[in-house]
Predict the structure.
Amino acid sequence: MAISPRQTLAAGPPFDAAKLDRLMEEAGIDVLLATSKHNTQYLLGGYKFIFFAAMDAIGHSRYLPIVVYEKGSPDHSAYIGNRMEGGEHQNNPFWTPAVHTATWGTLDAAALAVEHLRKIGKAGARVGIEPSFLPADARDLFASRLDGARFVDATHTLERLRSIKTPQELEKLKVASELITDSMLATIAAAREGSTKGEIIERLRREETNRGLHFEYCLLTLGASHNRAASPQAWAKGEVLSIDSGGNYQGYIGDLCRMGVLGEPDAELEDLLAEVDSIQKAAFARIKAGATGSEMIASAEEILKSSPSAAFTDFFCHGMGLISHEAPFLLTNHPVAYEGVDADRPLEVGMIISVETTMLHPRRGFIKLEDTVAVTTDGYEMFGNRGRGWNPGGV
């Protein structure tokens, strides 16, 4: 995975420090210990250590990067990383004033974090942590050595910090979406009668990798089946293909779904995809800064209710960026388990929304469109806005 340029110490934090200070104050957090790979990447200006990009485990423990940030005092920040990251720091210095590239596991990383908190006088402070991304042994060490500290869940704070994308982030998300679209259309065109799901998925992996993406997944259906897992199932004449893929460009997710058909689509298929598209467009029509997510959802659901295929069609939307589901959170437990806390809040310029409509047709199969849009002042910009109709296979 490519390493993005990082700001120097002189330039200060590569994120909106004033916004983070405000969010920490609202959450009752004095000092932050970020331990997830996506949030440490964000706080370090796009950096992710390539050695642990795919797997965290090493020896008897695991990689645990930690960014320490004190509210109102960026000069007290620290980065705690693996010993091999000393070379990374030498070639492209981290912005944090303190850098400890000295760890091999969770306990030595946690011990260095405790040492740094004591040094800056915050050992008994209100400490923000990421519970879902803090190993139990590291948390136990914090609890035993930070007498008087109160631990506060900082998940929401960090989600709010990342919710508005910078122009640089928007460009990366756009590139990711464009490259995934190109890869999916090339894969559909190359697939032939008899091509298996496994072969098609492997072709997509190569197409994305050759374009500079890190392949993450492909969910694929053929024919009448709704099963999106890899298998030896082969594509047959007249059947549809649904290809839904996530690819990563410099840490940012692209996630779209497009449709293919082996042969010419008949009138029924044209009508079914048009139904899906009409629901998507109803949602797009309500996207702009100042509008709420609930307005977008209501607009799409109104068209969905009048659809002839409403009984087996579903509408969904969610925020995305460094991870596939992040702020704004628009729907509750649908299907991913989180609260739709942002549904009635105004959308803001720079938010990214994935809009998807899925039809599980009992005879024709899995028919879906998923699109990525950026919220703008007077509307939206769609990323990867190609191939939204029936794309022919075997060409």
User: Anything to note?
Assistant: The CA atoms of residues 2 and 250 lie 6 Å apart.
